[in-house]
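Bench notes, afternoon.
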Amino acid sequence: MNVADALRGRLIVSCQAQGRSPFRDTGHMMAMAAAAVLGGAAGLRGQGVDHVRGMVDLGVPVVGLVKRRTPGSPVYITPSEADVTALIGAGAQIVAADATGRPRAGGEKLPDLVAATHASGALFMADIDSLDAAMAAVDAGADLVGTTLSGYTAGPVPDGPDIALVGKLSRHCPVPVIAEGRYRTRTQVSAAFDEGAWAVVVGTAISDPVNTTRRFAQACPHPRLDS
């Protein structure tokens, strides 16, 4: 069974931490990732070389990425070939990168990142925002496409996941479709699989207790002002 087959019909948990979250500490994040695996996650999505390296030891496929802002470019998910090389060196079996068609700093192109990924024997996951971007990524050699960036590249961010895009991709793309982005409920996950998702990624709803607590706190009559 290859890496993609091991994820078919299953849940991937994105274990990432932002801002002041104490889970940015590698040890804490590894505990979160281990808990996700114990709960039934068939794969993990991790940000940063150190976190990816630790997740690999948990025995499930790891989708690795680097979030890094570069001057002159809106791309921040795995912006360069060097990031690809570092992630694969850390053990990532799948490398995820922005494949929205937006320009990268330094002039690197999506096919460059795909080629670097394949040269090391890993799979490439294209984080896209539209059907057109997905088809362009497939033409560039992407092994999987994910709806990760749908809703994040133009206009206000929607509240729910883009399940309709999952259906479009499943009907038109010849590679596995990974549903990702704002999945918070079991109903949403089931709906994505009904639309043809190969696997579903859930992140914040599982692995970000800061954000989850904030959502509940904001429903209270007197929420903390700094929440």
